[in-house]
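Lay summary. Proteins are chains of building blocks that fold into shapes, and those shapes determine what they do. In this project we predict the shape from the chain. Here is one chain we studied, written as its sequence of building blocks.
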Amino acid sequence: MLKIKTFSNHSEKSKLIEENLKNKLKENNFTLTDATPDIAVAIGGDGTFIKMVKSCNYNQDIIYVGINSGNLGFLQNINPTEIDEFIVKLKNNDYKVERISLPIATIYTKDNKEYKFLNEIVIRASSLKALRLKVRVDGQFLQNYIGDGILVSSSTGSTAYNLSFGGSMVYNTLHTLQLTPIAPLNNTVYRNIINSLILPHTSIIELIVKNKEKDLFVTIDGENEVIKDVSKIEVRSLDEKIKFLRLKEYHYIKTVNEKFVKTNY
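And here is the predicted shape, written in a compact code that computers can read:
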């Protein structure tokens, strides 16, 4: 029988849902574990889901799924009222698995650092003054960029913070990277691409810091860090893929409608 591990945020609602889920899993002879599971279940919002995947060290052998007890819950495709149905489908192996791209950012300093992320990396100058970057894609010069910052998202992250800056939604099983400017300057002195650029997952994005002050304020999947003396950030997709569990009736377009439009014309 499948080994299952649950992850919950600290809200009372999520804790009650988690307790109910665990009881029903036990009743159906599933094994609950604190070790590496076959399936990891997040109870909360999208933030809880992202923290779950990170706490599992982005293990590509685990299948990840979310029960939404938060607000939007774009990554959480099971409602609390569907727990009984969810368990029956688990028992009957009646679900599908989608493979999702996993990007990694290498931040070049005196001590280079690597950060995997599920949604996005956001880069600003630590002073919050204009950020200047030389941008290259696959070794080809794209632009000398100046603006408030720049964001690189995965396809999964395209419907997250990326949307706030006018980025595009990308179907989550398309393996892409998206480069989205944040308040770029665009005038007779400074010319910047003002729209997001969608790239294949094989692309390597280089962001070379041209500011005199090279300390950056970096946000990776919602977690902030000031990183000193950065010369370059390189973003690429890993060969490994993260596995998301979907019920067979799940459809990306239906989810976009429910979360962003809510009409049934």
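What the prediction tells us: The domain at 3-95+247-261 is CATH 3.40.50.10330 (Rossmann fold).
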